[in-house]
Amino acid sequence: SIEGKRFAITDDGGDSFASKIKSRLENAGAQADIIRSDADITSYDGLILINATASPDKYSIHDLFTLIQGAKLKHLKWVFTFSDIITKIENDKNLEGIKQIQGFSGLLKTLNLEYPEIKFRSVLSYSPFDPETLPQIVLDELSVDDIFPEVIYKGNERLIDSAKMENLVLDNADTSTNLKLDKDSVVLVLGGAQGISPELTRQLAMEYPCRYLLIGRSKQIDDPDGVYAKLKTLVDIRKHLISVEGMKKPSEIESKIQKIFKSNQIGEAVKKIGETGAQVSYHPIDITDQENFRSFLQSVRKEYGKIDAIIHAAGLLHDKFFADKTWEIFGKVYQTKVNPLHVIMEEMGDDLKLLVLFSSVASSYGSVGQSDYAAANSVLDFTASLNGLKPDLRIVAFNWGPWKGAGMVSESLEAEFARKGISLIPLKEGGAYFVQELKYGKASRIVVMGGRGEVENFFKSVEDAQK
What we know:
Mean pLDDT: 91
Radius of gyration: 24 Å
Helix content: 40-55%
Low-confidence stretches: none
Strand order of the largest sheet: 2-1-3-4-5-6-7
Number of helices: 15
Distance between the termini: 19 Å
Strand content: 15-25%
């Protein structure tokens, strides 16, 4: 019951929503105050954040982070966000509007796992909020007994987003492909030389040997004689640096080990993809620097006349419980995904035919320790939901499960997945599926996990947890 409880409602900058929600809650016996993003809400029982298209003021993921972190999550019992921003993007048919999507959903799904005693919920509406009906929706959501961290409204319908098992069906009578790439096509792969990207790009290049520009943060080091390239493991590199180069300081040794290892990975990625007959180049670009990345995109178009496809596979992990995260940590993980996406939206031309977004099951279901990663990927997921808004452009998000043999899964994390009965995605099989999905799939968002039986068990465990 909300009777006698105190609620903080974010000021929407007008008199349409916040004040009406405040009155409705007070009529139901609660106390309510309208607050700004720098407010101290430690004494409140609930936080209600409003991002309404019709409101002058909007709130960012940084605002929500600050409010929740400031509250220390000791007293709060409800943290709810309400947003209809996606409606305006669809109505305006302007993909640049995706910059207003904040990823609250992924963040709250993770907090729902880390703090099961608190109700977290992202309420999304695909129709504009009505100031006369939203206050009752807020009251209903606070009072309802279910624990779904994400709820969707379409008109008066209240919906829950859930995954459905579905195989990729190939129509034998129709051998045409959705993927329109030829030898002159230009494909950008962000995060293209690390993790799963080289293998997936290699398999794509086997069928579509066009021009691939791999983009990453790391720089290749000078290795004119190919000495470093022959060092295949971290142990080999360390041994060489100590015994051959005579390095003694541990910090300097470790730093150079990482530079050599990453440089070798880049060289190996370029080599393997190039063996398909594709033209491959690597470009060290900090894609979180938006002006730098914008200049790079413009230079690519100037040199080649077009960009046919972009695969956004860049990502960063810094796993910690939300209570232990600083904005510096959270923002760095978040911006690695979101900053380049915003630039892509701003610089998008009619030449772009395919935008592939590497998301994660973390945004679909939450993931303990990954609130920032889940929030960022949630932005990618909602971007994919706008597939079809721009003619001749396919946007697709892959919500990847954990991978075996590459990606971001450490040995300890792999053991934890095994304990839970979750299979990892085999690299080569996952790459083959990726290419087939791009060629023949029609979905805008796909959750991909390894092992059918394990996937069914995973979905069942999620459903059971939400009951």
